[in-house]
Amino acid sequence: MNSEEFSITEELRSSQTLQALTEDKSTEWWKGSVFEKFALIRSPRSRGAVGEKLVSDIMELWGSKVKRSRTANFDRIIDDIPTEIKVSTTWDCIEDNFRWSQIRNQPYERIIFVGINPNEAKLAWSTKADLQKWIFSDNNRQHAGKNGGLDIYWVSGSIEMNAHFMRPIKDWYTM
Description:
Elements: H1 8-13, H2 16-20, H3 25-30, H4 36-39, H5 44-61, E1 66-68, E2 76-78, E3 81-89, E4 98-104, E5 110-117, E6 120-127, H6 128-134, E7 152-157, E8 167-168
Parallel strand pairs: 3-5
Antiparallel strand pairs: 1-2, 2-3, 4-7, 5-6, 6-8
């Protein structure tokens, strides 16, 4: 068969697979919301970078001293505390259904979790000891299965559901 006999684009356009795809509900769900622009950032790396800046903005607004990290081991130094920042928009068009991923056991002291719904943002934080107790286990491995060799973890659910290790952001200054 030569290329003049068919068009790849036309063949795929009429395929049952493409026809079975439904329109992305999340685009419509976020439309007109406070955080629409943030949610529609497609690159996870770009979304994470913007999320880190948003956390820096709010922590500075609340009086914290924020510096960029000079290492890949954590994102910011907030009030002289090496801090990792993890951001998740809600999944599956369900409010407070967050998934924070790529959590590593690196030399930071605290981690800030940001959960973004269409019209509400939530922040919480944990100590490294909290993560060691509740997250850094085979049950929360993100890659390579339960007994895999990669030490990458993830957390899902709402901040409220994870209150046993996620502390209210207002308590940042009490420790």
